[in-house]
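The instructor's notes for this session suggest beginning with a concrete chain rather than abstract definitions. Hand out the sequence below and ask the class to guess, before any prediction is shown, which regions might be ordered.
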Amino acid sequence: MIVIEIFAPAGVLEPAQRQQLGKRLIDALMGTEDAHTEAVMDSAGALTQVLIHEPAAWITGDRHPVDPADPPRYLVRVSAPAAWRQEMSTHAIDHLTQALAETEAEAHREPDRLRDQPHALVHIVGIAEGSLGMCGRPMGSLDFSQHMTAPHRDTIAHLPTDDLPPRTVTDPVCGMTVDLNTTDLTLEIDGALHGFCNGQCRRAFATEHGLSLSA
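After discussion, reveal the predicted structure:
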């Protein structure tokens, strides 16, 4: 489960812009160029929520209040299982900033300032294992991964592989294509070498096959 909170000065975003920005942020976080993962990303998106806040007061470090008439500042806070935080940060900060820039461009404001000036802060917050819950019970990062991917495992297992380049495999958990030449996230089970797009998929697969991974 992922929660995206965005803070913006009051009056900057119209109701329609809020709705569009919320969808854009989810797409930015879930986006992938690998069509094999589309169904899994849809499952992840269904567990993602966006909350948009307009603080009653917003004071910057120079002791001046943020004026809605000025180019607006933004704060985006993403809360996710702690085990996902580091890998998520490698792409989420860039993609979420780009989503804000697209919104700024549509509002006829200068989008490039979000990368040139500290006008968009992105915080990726990791929630400790066992501190997130769903369906009335605590769920860890592996629980969420399995919840998102389990309904699609049979489809993933039967994805065609004939057109994949040499030493390229399909991640058996999420369906993403993996280049074995550029990753050490692999497991060999019953003589078959499996590759994984990230550590969480590898952990989930190992757990399901009764394997213990070294820290």
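Then share the key points. Residues 96 and 189 are 37 Å apart (CA to CA). The chain has two domains: 2-127, 137-208.
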